[in-house]
Amino acid sequence: MRCPVCGYEDTKVIETRLSEEGFVVRRRRECPKCGARFTTYERYELGPSMVIKRDGRRERFSRDKILRGVMIACEKRPVPYDEVEKLVDRVILKLQGMGKKEVETTLIGELVLKELRNLDEVAYVRFASVYREFDSIDHFLETISELKEGKGREEER
Ligand SMILES: [Zn+2]
Q1: Which of 70, 76, 131, 144 is the most exposed place for a label (fewest CB within 10 A)?
Q2: What are the tens digits of pLDDT across the range 128-138?
Q3: Dist. CA 39 → ligand 1 center (Å)
């Protein structure tokens, strides 16, 4: 792995760690030439190949895109980045489990919402407002009441 600072090719691995779920390998590396330290992640390329958008157009499936959406929803919330990454990985594993080559963006959105509900309520509402395209205050209130009902269900478990 090439040093991102000076371009030296023979960087050293100084620490290797496996994520709790065992799906991600995290490596701390050091460049012997300039002393820069950096981290690399190695993960499975999971998930469907394509997503189907609302209007029927297809697009390449992208983990980064889901990650970005969740990060925006979690902005300035007390949610560690690590939790955001794990959330996205859980969503992708679920999609993977469905065994479909193409999935609707609406399905991805619903899976993300289900996870966000347990993580952060404000992020949940933010994500829902973008993804469900709130067009009225009623629609907004509907989502809030869903959140409250869902909470009741979680506690019964
Ligand atoms: Zn270097």
Answers
A1: 76
A2: 888 777 677 77
A3: 13
C-alpha 3 – ligand 1 centre gap (Å): 5
Long-range pairs for 147-150: beta carbons < 8 A, 24 or more residues apart: 147/117, 147/121, 150/117
Counting Cα atoms < 13 Å in the Cβ hemisphere of 114 gives 11
Record the tokens describing residue 109, joined without a space: 């959105």
Q: How far is the CA of 13 from the centre of ligand 1 (A)?
A: 13
Q: Which residues pair with 52 in a beta bridge?
A: 58, 104
For ligand 1, the distance from its centroid to the CA atom of residue 38, given in whole angstroms, is 10
Domain boundaries, the chain: 1-43, 46-156
